[in-house]
Structure formats: structure tokens, C-alpha cells
Write a structure and sequence with these properties.
By secondary structure, the chain is an alpha+beta fold. Strands 2-1-3-4 form a 4-stranded mixed sheet, sandwiched between helices. A hairpin with a 5-residue loop joins strand 3 and strand 4. The radius of gyration is 17 Å and the shape is globular. About 35% of the residues are buried.
Length: about 210
């Protein structure tokens, strides 16, 4: 069984959705650095950064970083469709996963914690950093939408790892409203992804309707 350290309304939803698609047994340990509980010390034992998602594999080894987790799950569960079987399509899916991790995730970290990047900044400066980074984050999503058009999903014929990560990260980063205006076709694709039968219950758990 897999053990997933995560928190509702966070990026751990991508790993949970992938485990559902793979049909792999797992348990969730609810914890996060911004809302630590008794389980947070347990998380720090397996991942000193205290990041979520962190996934403990059935053999006891540990994976962190959403893109790495999704690539691994797609590799060890090849029939799940998390990664395309075609080598060229698989390469593009991996490119997209790393694009989100390297560009979108990085920007979100600055938006959430600008004080980590500008020592002794006052609140006005921190807000300028947030605003500039948020604009850059939106531009990154526009680039992503242009680079990875739906066919009918981002990774091909069925919902896979790239779809899940794009849907989850755009959701919790608050980028959907911008995308609805700037890239409406991509926005509609994200809605189709999160409505997929194996994904919808995960989204409902992390972001209850209403």
C-alpha cells in the first residue's frame, strides 16, 4: 500500500487522483507545514522539507515532487494511461509535467511566501512582488495552454498525469479565473478533466462544491 502525505485543497490532490486512476491501494495522512499536527513530525522523518505531496512507496522508499511522483506512477502502472505508451507522446507529457513544476509551482511559492525572497521588505514591497509574480504565473499558464492543446486531453486520448497536474495546480493556485478569460478552450479542458469519473471524487473531496 502507498502512503500519501497531503492536505485537502492542496497539490496532493494530483497524486491522489493518479492513485485512483492506477487503481492502487493507498492511505492518506493529513498534514501540512502551514497547518502542522502530530503527523507533521512523521512527515519530516521521511521528507525533511515537510513538503506535500510526499508518497511512501510499498517498498518503504520515499518520493516527493509532484512531477516525479506522477512520472513514477505512470511508469510502474503502465496500463493506467497516466503516461502515453507512444514514446514521442510520453516525452511531451513529461515535458509538460516538468514545465508545471519548474515554472508554475516556482511562481506559486513566491506568491505564497514573498518574504522568503526579499529580506526585510515592507508590506508594500511584498505586495508588489506578489502582483508581479502572479502576472508571470498567468503568463506561464498561457504558454502552457498554447504548447499543450487538448487532443482531446492534454496527454492524448484519455486523462493522464499531465491532465491531472494541470487541473490541480491551476485550481489551487487561483489561476482559473484568468484562464477562463485568456484561454477559454484550455479552461474548458480543465473542467472536463476534473469531471472525469475517477478524478471528480478527488476534486469534490479537496474542493467541495458550493
Amino acid at each position: 500500500m502507498y502512503t500519501l502525505y497531503g492536505k485537502k485543497g492542496s497539490g496532493s490532490a494530483s497524486t491522489q487522483a493518479a492513485l485512483e486512476i492506477a487503481g492502487a491501494p493507498y492511505r492518506v495522512v493529513e498534514t501540512a507545514s502551514w497547518e502542522p499536527n502530530d503527523a507533521f513530525a512523521e512527515l519530516l522523518q521521511v521528507n525533511p522539507l515537510g513538503q506535500i505531496p510526499t508518497l511512501v512507496l510499498p517498498d518503504g522508499s520515499v518520493l516527493s515532487e509532484s512531477a516525479a511522483i506522477l512520472i513514477h506512477l505512470g511508469s510502474v502502472h503502465p496500463d493506467s494511461g497516466l503516461l502515453p505508451r507512444d514514446a514521442s507522446a510520453r516525452a511531451q507529457a513529461i515535458r509538460g509535467l516538468i514545465f508545471i513544476a519548474a515554472n508554475c509551482y516556482a511562481a506559486i511559492s513566491i506568491v505564497d511566501f514573498p518574504e522568503r525572497w526579499c529580506e526585510d521588505a515592507d508590506e508594500a514591497m511584498l505586495e508588489r512582488i506578489r502582483a508581479g509574480t502572479r502576472a508571470r504565473l498567468h503568463r506561464h499558464w498561457e504558454m502552457f495552454a498554447d504548447l499543450f492543446p487538448a487532443r482531446p486531453y492534454l496527454g492524448g486520448e484519455k486523462v493522464g498525469a499531465l491532465d491531472i497536474l494541470a487541473a490541480v495546480v491551476s485550481k489551487w493556485s487561483g489561476s482559473r479565473a484568468h484562464l477562463q478569460q485568456a484561454r477559454p478552450a484550455f479552461y474548458e479542458t480543465l473542467l472536463r478533466i476534473e469531471a472525469q469519473p475517477q478524478v471528480a471524487p478527488v476534486f469534490a473531496q479537496h474542493w467541495p462544491p458550493g
